[in-house]
## 1
Amino acid sequence: MNFTIFIIISVSIGFVIFKWNRRNNSKWVLPKESFPTDWRIILFNNVSFYNALSEDEKKKFEYKIQEFLLNCRITGIKTNIDATDKILVASSGVIPIFKFDNWKYANLYEVLIYPSTFNEEYEIEGSNRRVLGMVGNGAMEGIMILSQQALKHGFKNESDKKNTAIHEFVHLIDKTGGPIDGIPSVLMEKQYAIPWLDLINKKIDEIYEGASDINPYGGTNRAEFFSVASEYFFERPKLLERKHPDLYNLLEKVFKQDMSSRNLSKSKVTIGRNSPCPCNSGNKYKKCCGQVHFN
C-alpha cells in the first residue's frame, strides 16, 4: 500500500475513534498523578523556558505538560520516539499558551513524528522533501506532523530564532479562531487587531526590502509571519525587543508574557549525580530520585 494512503487511512480511523471517545467521554482528562522525576530531568536538560520559571510556575508548566499528553497522542512514523520527544512536543504546545489557564487544544488529538523532512504529500522519501512541520486539514484534520530532527534542533539551538514545533502550534492557535490568517483572534483583544495587521504589513515589506533580520519565510503571508515572529519572541525575546520593539510589545500583549524579563540565559541545566535532586528534597540526585540510575 502507498505510504501516503496508509497514513491517511490510519489517521481517518484514528479520528473516528477519537471523536467517538470525546463524545462518550466528554470530560477533558486532567492529571491525577505526580509529575515523573524523569520527565522533570528532561525539562531541566532541554527546555530553557522551563528553567527560567519560578518554582510555582514550574509546577504549573509540569501540570500543563501532563494535561497535554493525557489528551493528545504522540506517534512515531518510521522512527522510534521516546519520553524526550513527547516532552518536547508538549513543551512546544504549552509555551505559547502558558498564561492561559483554561486553554485546551481541542482541535488536536495526535502529533505524528516523522524522522526528518517530508513533502506536501506526507512522503518521507523522494524529491521535494522540504517540509519540517505541518498542521493537517481535510482528512488530516486534528493532526500535526513534525520532523523529529527539527523538533530536537528547535530546543538544542536557541540562538537561531527558530523552533519548528512552536511555529506549528502557533498555526494551530491561529486556526482555533477561524482560518489560519495570522490574526490570533482567540488570544488578541479586539483593540489590537488593526494595529497588528498594520504592523504585519510593515514588517513583511521590510523583509521584501532586505531590511529585516526576521526569517524571510515570514514574508510568505500573514499567517507565516505570525508563526515566524512568535518563534523569535520565544527564542530570542531580548533581541526582538531591541530590534523590533513595536512587534515585541504586541506579541507580549497577544501571549500575555513578558519574555524579555525571563532569564533564558539560564539555559538548560544538566542533572549530574551530585546535582541537587529536581524533586527539591534537598538531597543529591544520586542519593534521591537518581538512585535507580546510579545503583
## 2
Amino acid sequence: MTDKATENLSPERAQEREEVLTKARAAKDVAPVIAQLSTPQKNEILETAAQHLLDNTSIILGANERDIVNGKEAGLSDQLLDRLRLDEERIAGIANGLRLVAGLQDPVGEILQGSTMDNGIEMKQVRVPLGVMGMVYEARPNVTVDAFGLAIKSGNVPLLRGSKSARESNKQLVELLQDTLEKLGHPREAVQLLPCETRDSVQDLITARGLVDLVIPRGGAGLINAVVLGATVPTIETGTGNCHFYIDKSADLDKGIAMVVNGKTRRTSVCNSTETVLLDSALSDEDKLQVVRALQDAAVTIHGDVEELSAFGVENAVQATEEDWAEESLSMDINAKVVGGVDGAIAHIQKWSTGHTEGIAAQDADILQKFANEVDAAAVMLNASTAFTDGEVYGMGAEIGISTQKLHARGPMALPELTSSKWILQGTGHTRP
C-alpha cells in the first residue's frame, strides 16, 4: 500500500520512497519488542555482534575497498577518503566499541525521581527508549555499528541512512549485524539500512511522522542544515566543529604548543580538530612565533591576517577569508590570530564558534574560570587538547554524535541521551475530587 505522496512520482522515485516507508513501518512494528529486551539479552547481542564483525574482517575490508576505489574515481578528497577507510585496527576498534557499550549501565528502567503524594499515590519518573531512531550520516562506516550498539543498548531501533560513498561497507556491516540478531532469535528488522541512491530518501525519512520518533544527522554543515530545516519529525542537531584554542600570556608555552599541535594534527578529518589558534597579544613576539613555527614544522599551513602575522616574523602565511574563520577546514590548515587577552579570545569565539569545543592554555586560575564561565560551547577544555571531546574518551563506549544544541542533549550523546521518560503513578483506586 502506497501513500498519496507517492502517486505522482516516477516509478524509480516511488520505489525508493516506498522502500523507506516499508522499512520504517517494520522498524515501528519491532520497536516494542526491542524496548522490552532485558539487559543480558542486549549485552549478548552486542558481544556476539562484536565477535561476528571480527570473524568477518576480510569480508568487511573487501566491501570497504570497493567504496575506496569508487570514491577515488568520484574525486573524493583525502579527508573524506580517510573518514571512509577501514583497516583491521579500525574494525577491531569498532568491535571493541560494541563491547564497551555492553559493559555500560543500561539506562532503561532507571528511576529519575519519585515521591508519594499526600493522598498516597506513588509516582516515579522512569527512563524509556525513544523508539525508532533515524540516523543520517556521511562517509564513516563506523557510525553504522556505533548507532546499532547504542540504539540496541538503549532499547531503540535504528534506521540507518548512510552516504552513497560508503554504500558497500554499510551494506556488509548491516548484513552482519542482522545475521547476529537472527542467530540469537531477534528480528532482523531491529536494524535496517535505507537506500542512498538519491538525497530524496533523506527527505522520506525525516518526514515519516508517526513512524520515526527521532532523527539525528551526523556530517557536514550542509547535511545537518538540510535535515534540521526539512524535518517534520524531532531532530537532534549534531553540529560541525569549528574549534578554537586560546593561548594566554600565563600559559606554560611548551604545553600550550603541544596541545594546539595535537588538536590540529592528531586527526584532521574529525569534528574536534582545532581550526583556529588564538594568541594573547601580551605574549612576546618570540613566543607567538614559536607557536606558529611549531605548527608549520608539523606541516600545518597557517591562515590569518598576513600583515598581522608577518609583524612578529611569520612567513608563508595565507591570507584568511571569512570562510576560513567560519568553517571547518578538516585538513592540515589552521587559522592564527592575535587577540586582546581572554576577553578578546571570548569575543572572537562568540562570533565564529559552532558551539562544539573551545580550549584554553593558561596557568592563571581566574582566567581559566572566566573562560569556562563565559564561553558558550558543548565542551570547554581547560589546559587540554580539543581532541578529548569524544564519547569513547568520556567513558560512553561510543557516541551517536556530538550535540551542539541546548535542548534534550548537549555534547557527546550516548545511552542516557537516547532515552526519554514517562511518569508512572500507582494508586489504590484513587479518584480526583
## 3
Amino acid sequence: MSFIKVDPSSDFSFHNLPYGIFSTDNNPKRRVGVAIGDQILDLSVIMSMFRGPLLSQHQDVFDQPTLNAFMALGCESWREARSTVQGLLSANESALRDDVSLRSRALVHQSAATMHLPADIGDYTDFYSSRDHATNVGTMFRGKENALMPNWLRLPVGYHGRASSVVVSRTPIRRPSGQMRPDQTKPPVFGPSKQLDIELEMAFFVGGGNQLGEPIPIEKAHEHIFGMVLMNDWSARDIQAWEYVPLGPFLGKNFGTTISPWVIPMEALLPFAEPNAIQDPEPLPYLQHLDPFTFNINLSVSLKGQDMADAATICKTNFKYMYWTMKQQLTHHTVNGCNVRPGDLLASGTISGPDPESFGSMLELSWRGSKNIDLGGGETRTFLRDGDQVTIKGYCQGDGYRVGFGPCAGTILPALQH
C-alpha cells in the first residue's frame, strides 16, 4: 500500500497508477504525472530516481509534454517504470515518504492541475467490435436477417479516423453541420445535425510500434499495447447515414472525439482479464490467441441537460461484451505491413451489451429515434440537445479498491451559423 491515503471509492488506487500529462497555474509547462488518490506524482521532479537498467539512460522521457517518448521505449521499460513508481509510493519506502521538501515539489493536488491530451496522436483508427452493437445497427438499417455483414465474424472491421479532432475530457464539442437527406423522396439539405449522438467506447494507445512492411504477430501484440482510456466518439447520425455509402464514416464522425486524460497501464488491468468471447466461426490462424484479453470494466454514461438538476444515467454496460480483442485488432491492423507508431490510438467501437440498458449509443437506446429515453423529471431525449453534458465513467472493482479511468466528459455547443 501507499503512504498516500486513498479512498476505497477513488478511481486512482495504488493498484492503478495511470499516466497523464498535466500543467498547473504556477508551472504551465506540460509534464508527465501519475495519479494516486486525489494527488498527482510529478515524474519530472523525480525523474533522477528512475535508476533501473533500462530507464537510467532515458530519464528525460518523464520531462516531456507528451507520453510518446516513454511509449516508444517498449514494454520492458514500462514495467520497470511502474515498479519504480510503486516502490517510491510504497508505505515501506522512505525516499519520498520522509523527504518533506521533495514531497512538496513532487505531489500536486489534482484539483490544481489542468489535464491535457496524453499523447501526440499521429493516427487514430476506430473499430466496430461489439457484436451486440453491430447487430442492433444492422437490424435497424438492413433487417434482422442481414444484420451482420458477411465479413463481420471473420475480421475486426474498422476505419481510419481523424486524429486532429481527438480532444481531452471537458473540451466542449460544437454541433456539426453538413449534408443530410431526412426525406428520401427529396434532394439532400444542409444544416446543423438533428441526430447528434454519443458512442461509448474505449481505446488503447500503441507503444513500441513496427516497421513498414513488418506485421505485428498475435503472439507479440500485447507488447505494443501501452494502456487504455475511455472514449466518446461523437456521431452525427443523419450526416453519417447520407454520406457513408460507399466508403464509410467521414464528416459525421470527424468533428470531435473525446478521450479521458489518464492512461491506465495494461498491467493494472490484467487482474481483471476475462475469457475472450466465443468466436464462431473460428478466426483465421493469424487472429487466434487463447490467453484472456478482454476485461471486466464497468462502464456507464450519464446525461445532464441545461435544465436538469442532476445527471441521469442512460447506459450501464461492460467492456467484457466485446467480440474482437485488442490483440486481434492490432494484429489485423498490421497484418498487411501497415506501420503503427507510439501514440497511435485504436478504439473499440461502440460497446453495447445484450440488454437495452446496456446499449452504448442513443441510436440504439432510442431505436433510431422511435422511442424516448427517459431522463426523469419529465426530461426525455432521442438524440442530444445543445447544452447537454455527457459523462462516461469506467472502473474495475477489486477487493476494497478500484482501478478507474476518471471521467470522459463533453458538453454540446450550438452549431455555428453558415
## 4
Amino acid sequence: MKVFINKRIPEIGIHMLEEAGLQVALPESENLTYEEWLRYCQNTDTILSIGTDFRYDKEFFEACPNVKAIALYSVGFDHVDIKEANQRNIPIGNTPDVLSRATSDVAFLLMQSVARRASYNFQKVKEGGWDAFDPLHALGQELYGKTLGIFGLGRIGFQMAEKCKKAFDMEIIYHNRHRNEEAERELKATYVSFDELVRNSDVLSIHANFTPEHKDLFNESVFEKMSPNAIFINTARGGFHQEQDLYNALTEGKIWGAGLDVTNPEPMAEDNPLLELSSVCILPHIGSATVEARNGMAILAAENIIAFSKGEEMLNCANPEIYYHHSS
C-alpha cells in the first residue's frame, strides 16, 4: 500500500509507516500547486495530509478515485467534506488529545500577552523605543478573579480553563452544544447561553470545532455585546471571527484586546491593520508547535494509516459512523 505525505513530518511517523511495510511517497517540493498535489493524490492509496491548503471535497474525490483513506495531521477536519467521504466509505483520521496541552498553552500565552501588551512593548524595545518611565503609557490589565468564557469546552478548552483557574483564580463560564459535567465538577464551571457568554466574559476564548454555521460567528453584533474591557482569544480557526469587525470593535473601544493564533485568511497580510494595535497579539498558527505535540501527532496519524492497512478501524476517526473493509 502506498502512502502519500504532502509535507515532511517527524521521522518517528515515517519510520512507523515503513516498519509496517508501507511505501511512503514524499514530494520533491513541499510548495505544491493544486494540480501537482492532485497528481500525487491520484497515484496513491492513502494520504497522510498536513495543512489545510487544499480541500477534500467532491471535486477531489471524483478526481482521485484510488484514494481509500485519509489521515489528517490535525484535530480539525473542516477542510474535509465528511458527507462526500462517507458516501465513498473513506475513513478520515485525525489526531485529538496529543496537542491539547500545547494549544491551550498558546491560548493562555495569548491571554497574558494581550493583557500586558507584551507584543507592543517588545516591538518598542526592538525599535529602540524604550522611553523614560511614564506612569500612564500603554497600561495593561490584571486577570486575577476575572471571568473566563469558553466557547467549546472540550479537551483543549478544559486545559485552558484549568490553567486560568489555577493561575488567576478565574471564574469559568462556558457555552457548548452539550454540558461538560467534568468541568462543572472539577472547575466549578457554569453553563450559560451564548448571549450570556458574550456579555459576561472578561476573556472569551474559542476552542470549538469549526463548522460552516460558525462562519463569522463573532462579528459586529457580538462584539457590541461584549465588555469594553474584554479580551478576545481565538486559537481554533480564523473563520470564527470577522476580522474587519474585530478591528472596528478594537479601535472603537467596544472590546479591549485580542489574541489570535489563527486568522482568515492565513497567512495574515503583513499590512493588516490589526498588527498595528497595541492590545493585539498575533501568532502564526503555532498551537501544536512543540516537539512533544508534533511527534504525538505523527504517531497518531501513522497509527491511523497502519490500522487501515490491516483492515482495522482507525484509532481516531472523524467519521466513525462509516463501515469499511480493506485487505492489504
